[in-house]
Amino acid sequence: MDSIDELDMYEAEKRLALYNEYRDAIRVFAYYVETELRAYLCNGVDVEPVPAPGGTYFKVTLTDTWIYEAERPQRFVPEVIVYEVGPVHVQRLRGEEE
Fold it and tell me: Most exposed of 10, 18, 28, 73 (fewest Cβ within 10 Å)?
């Protein structure tokens, strides 16, 4: 096997491990949040539109967060603040009564 095949295999294994972790983690979070660059699972989300001279951007504050990113050594973090100029998609995964 050459180094390109080994690299492809390594990346495929990392993606599969990340997906398996995501599939397990999604059960304990209330929201799925997606921005242009990244996806998150969290238990609290606040999206605040911020008017600016160049146009509106969004300040997105996530609490109790899992970050969908393979190369990140620590995916679970207590708080994330994202500033986004593009769309922010928020999906409720489970209701308050669950």
Answer: 73
Domain residue limits, the chain:
3-92
Confidence of residue 95 (pLDDT cuts 50, 70, 90): low
70 band by pLDDT with thresholds 50, 70 and 90: confident
Q: Enter the tokens of residue 62.
A: 């996530």
Q: Kindly list the distances between the CA atom of residue 49 and the CA atoms of 7, 43, 76, 81, 89, in Å, as whole numbers in the listed order.
A: 41, 20, 25, 13, 13
The DSSP-derived string for 14-47 is HHHHHHHHHHHHGGG-SEEEE-SS-EEEEEEEEE
Q: Spell out the residues 6+ positions from residue 92 whose beta carbon is closer than 8 angstroms to its own.
A: 30, 31
Cα separation, 74 vs 71, whole angstroms = 9
How far, CA to CA in Å, does 65 sit from each of 22, 26, 49, 57, 61? 12, 11, 21, 21, 10
Task: Indicate the pTM of the whole model.
Answer: 0.82
